[in-house]
C-alpha cells in the first residue's frame, strides 16, 4: 500500500513528523499543550529511561492512562525501542484489570495514579495478590511472573511504585542518544508494535497483535477517505486504548500534522465550551455525544462556525449537515483489522440504492462471504459471514494458535453478517453471534452473566442487547431469582458496576421465572425470541 516516502516504524515516524511539523501543536489537554517537536524530544528521553530500566525489544509494556500527552509520549517511547505496547482500558475494574495484566505478560506497567473516580493504585493492589508488600526497585510477584516494574504518573505513596516522569532522568544518566539510535535502528515494519484488547465472542477479551508497518500504513491510507489538514484541530472523545481512537483519530491526525483536542470527561456544556474556545475544525465521535450537545440549553447561542467536517452531524454548521444520514457511507471495522476494512468517502451523499451501506473494501484488503454453516463461498447478493484478509489484518491473537485464528487461505472470519452487491459495496446486517455494541463499546454478554450469577440470590441470568436509536444497543439482563429471594434492579446494577466497567452495566433489568423463559428444543436459551419479548415490553412500557 502507498506510504509517504519513509520506513513505517514508530521511531522513523515521530522523527519525520518532528521535522515536518515541529512547531505545530500536536495535542491539547486542559492547560497543557504539546508540539510535535516536544513529543519527539520527550518520548526520546523516556525511551532512554525505559532502556536503562531493562525494557527492550519485545518487552510488553502496559499503558493505563487517559487520553492526553502523557499517553502519547509513553506509547511513542516504548514503541520506538521495539517494546510491544499494551493499551489498557481505563474503565477496567479489579477483575478485568487483573485478568489483562496477567494475560498480556507485562514486563512494565506505565500508569496514572488516578483518573476521575478511578484510584488505580488501590485497584492494582486489589487485582494483584502480593503487590502491596513489594518494593518497587525490582518487583517479584507470583501472580504476574514477568512484571518487573510499575511506574506511576501523579501523586503516589506506594513502595512498589517507581516515579513515571523521573524515568526520563534515569535515561539521561544511563543511556546515551547513540545507544537509543542503535536500538531504534533494530525496529522493523514487521515487528509487533501493539496488542489491542477488545471483547470477542467469548467471556474473556482477545488481544490482537499489530505490527509497526500495518498500523502506520493503514492509519495513513484511511485518511484518503476524509479531508484532514495540518491546520485542523480535531475534537474526539474516542479513547486511545481502543482501535478507533488509536488508529483513526490519533494516528490519522498525526499523519497530517494536525492538533488533537483531548478532554478527561465528556460533559455537553463543558465540551461545547472547549470546542468553541479552541476553534475546533473537525468533530468526531459517537452519535449520542452529538445528541447531548445539541440538546444542551446553550447550544443555539454557540459560535461553532470553525467546524468544517466530522461525523457528529448535528453539531456541524447547517450547510454541512447531510440531508439524510442513511445516505452517507458508514464503515465496518474491528480491532482485528486495525480499524475499518470497508469504507467510502463519508462526506458525500450516496444514491438511494446504497442507503445504509458500508462502503467498498479498503484498497489492499480482500473479502469473501461464506455460509456460516458450511464455509462455502457465496456469490454477490447472498447473506453470510464476512471474512477478511490483507495488509491491515492482525499478525495474530495473543496466545492463540494461528490455525485457530485464520482459515487455510489466511482469511479471518469476523462473526459479522452481511453481503456485497455486484458493485462490491458492503451491506452489513449485524453480528452473527450475540456481542453487544453499545455507544461504540463492545460488551460480551457472558462476562456480565458471570457477574450476575455470582449474586447469592440469583439463580439464572441472561444478558443481551436491545435496540437503541442513539447508542445502537443497550445492555439488558433477564434474571431468575432463587425461590423466596428478593433483589432489586438497582442492587443488581450496583453489583455489576462494582466489578465491571460502567458501559457493561445493564440499562434494563427484567425479573422472570424459569418457566416463562423461551428455550430451544435442545434446552438452550433462545436469545432471539428473548430479545423479541424484551423489545415488546420496552415498546409497550411494561
Describe what you observe in this structure:
With 542 residues, the chain is α/β, with parallel strands linked by helices. It has four domains: 10-187, Rossmann fold (3-Layer(aba) Sandwich); 226-321, Rossmann fold (3-Layer(aba) Sandwich); 332-431, Luciferase, Domain 3 (Luciferase, domain 3); 436-540, GMP Synthetase, Chain A, domain 3 (2-Layer Sandwich). It has a six-stranded mixed β-sheet. Helix 11 (287-294) links the parallel strand 14 (282-283) and strand 15. Helix 2 packs across helix 3 (69-79).
Helix content: 25-40%
Determine the number of helices (DSSP H or I, runs of at least 4 residues): 14
Please list the strands of the largest sheet in the order they lie side by side. 2-1-13-12-14-15
Count of domains: 4
Q: Please compute the radius of gyration using only Cα atoms.
A: 24 Å
List keywords for this structure.
542 residues, alpha/beta, Rossmann fold, Luciferase, domain 3, 4 domains, 28% helix, 24% strand
Q: Summarize this, please?
A:
The chain is α/β, with parallel strands linked by helices and 542 residues long. The chain has a six-stranded mixed β-sheet with strand order 2-1-13-12-14-15. Strands 4-3-5-8-9 form a five-stranded parallel β-sheet, with helices on one face. A four-stranded antiparallel β-sheet has the order 19-20-22-23, with no helix packed on it.
Topology:
Layout: H1 10-21, E1 25-29, E2 32-35, H2 36-52, E3 60-64, H3 69-79, E4 84-87, H4 94-103, E5 108-112, E6 114-115, E7 118-119, H5 120-127, E8 149-153, E9 162-163, H6 166-174, H7 177-185, E10 192-198, E11 206-211, H8 212-222, E12 233-235, H9 243-256, E13 259-262, H10 268-278, E14 282-283, H11 287-294, E15 309-310, E16 332-334, E17 339-343, E18 360-361, E19 365-370, E20 384-390, E21 396-397, E22 412-420, E23 426-431, E24 436-438, E25 441-443, H12 445-453, E26 458-468, E27 472-481, H13 489-499, E28 508-511, H14 527-540
Helix pairs in contact: 1-2, 2-3, 2-6, 4-5, 8-9, 10-11
Amino acid at each position: 500500500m502507498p506510504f509517504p516516502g519513509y520506513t513505517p516504524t514508530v521511531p522513523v515516524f515521530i522523527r519525520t513528523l518532528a521535522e515536518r511539523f515541529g512547531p505545530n501543536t500536536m495535542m491539547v489537554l486542559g492547560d497543557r499543550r504539546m508540539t510535535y517537536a516536544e513529543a519527539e524530544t520527550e518520548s526520546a528521553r523516556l525511551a532512554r529511561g525505559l532502556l536503562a530500566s531493562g525494557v527492550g525489544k519485545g518487552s510488553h509494556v502496559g499503558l493505563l492512562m487517559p487520553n492526553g500527552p502523557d499517553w502519547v509520549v509513553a506509547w511513542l517511547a516504548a514503541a520506538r525501542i521495539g517494546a510491544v505496547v499494551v493499551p489498557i482500558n481505563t474503565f477496567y475494574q479489579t477483575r478485568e484489570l487483573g485478568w489483562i495484566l496477567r494475560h498480556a505478560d507485562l514486563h512494565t506497567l506505565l500508569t496514572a495514579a488516578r483518573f476521575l473516580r478511578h484510584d488505580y493504585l488501590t485497584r492494582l493492589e486489589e487485582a494483584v495478590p502480593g503487590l502491596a508488600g513489594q518494593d518497587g526497585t525490582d518487583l517479584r510477584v507470583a501472580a504476574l511472573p514477568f512484571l518487573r516494574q510499575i511506574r506511576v504518573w501523579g501523586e503516589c505513596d506506594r513502595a512498589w511504585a517507581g516515579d513515571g516522569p523521573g524515568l526520563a532522568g534515569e535515561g539521561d544518566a544511563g543511556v546515551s542518544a547513540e545507544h537509543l539510535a542503535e536500538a531504534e535502528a533494530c525496529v522493523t515494519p514487521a515487528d509487533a508494535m501493539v496488542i489491542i484488547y477488545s471483547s470477542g465472542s467469548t467471556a474473556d477479551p482477545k488481544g490482537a497483535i499489530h505490527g509497526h508497518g500495518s498500523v502506520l500504513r493503514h492509519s495513513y491510507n484511511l485518511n484518503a477517505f476524509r479531508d484532514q489538514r495540518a491546520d485542523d484541530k480535531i475534537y474526539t472523545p474516542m479513547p486511545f486504548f481502543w482501535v478507533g481512537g488509536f488508529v483513526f483519530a490519533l494516528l490519522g491526525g498525526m499523519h497530517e500534522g494536525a492538533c488533537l483536542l483531548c478532554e478527561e470527561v465528556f460533559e455537553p456544556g463543558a465540551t461545547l465550551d472547549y470546542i468553541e474556545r479552541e476553534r475546533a475544525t473537525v468533530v468526531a465521535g459517537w452519535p449520542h455525544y452529538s445528541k447531548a450537545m445539541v440538546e444542551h440549553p446553550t447550544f443555539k447561542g454557540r459560535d461553532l462556525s470553525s467546524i468544517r467536517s466530522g461525523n457528529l452531524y448535528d453539531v456541524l454548521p447547517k450547510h454541512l449537515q447531510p440531508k439524510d444520514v442513511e445516505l452517507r457511507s458508514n464503515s465496518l471495522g474491528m480491532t482485528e483489522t486495525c480499524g475499518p476494512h470497508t469504507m467510502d468517502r463519508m462526506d458525500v451523499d450516496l444514491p438511494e440504492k446504497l442507503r445504509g451501506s458500508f462502503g467498498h473494501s479498503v484498497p489492499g484488503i480482500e473479502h469473501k462471504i461464506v455460509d456460516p454453516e458450511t464455509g462455502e463461498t457465496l456469490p454477490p447478493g447472498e447473506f453470510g459471514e464476512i471474512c477478511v484478509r490483507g495488509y491491515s489484518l492482525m499478525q495474530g491473537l495473543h496466545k492463540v494458535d494461528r490455525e485457530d485464528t485464520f482459515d487455510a487461505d489466511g482469511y479471518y472470519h469476523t462473526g459479522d453478517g452481511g453481503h456485497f452487491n455486484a458493485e462490491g459495496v458492503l451491506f452489513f446486517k449485524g453480528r452473527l453471534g450475540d456481542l453487544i455494541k453499545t455507544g461504540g463499546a463492545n460488551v460480551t454478554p457472558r462476562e456480565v452473566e458471570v457477574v450476575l450469577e455470582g449474586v447469592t440470590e440469583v439463580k439464572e441470568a441472561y444478558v443481551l442487547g436491545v435496540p437503541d436509536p442513539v447508542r445502537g444497543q443497550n445492555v439488558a439482563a433477564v434474571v431468575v431469582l432463587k425461590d423466596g429471594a428478593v433483589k432489586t434492579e438497582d442492587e443488581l446494577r450496583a453489583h455489576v458496576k462494582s466489578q465491571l466497567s460502567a458501559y457493561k452495566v445493564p440499562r434494563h433489568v427484567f425479573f422472570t421465572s424459569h418457566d416463562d423463559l423461551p428455550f430451544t428444543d435442545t434446552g438452550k436459551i433462545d436469545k432471539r425470541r428473548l430479545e423479541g419479548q424484551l423489545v415488546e415490553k420496552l415498546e409497550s412500557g411494561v
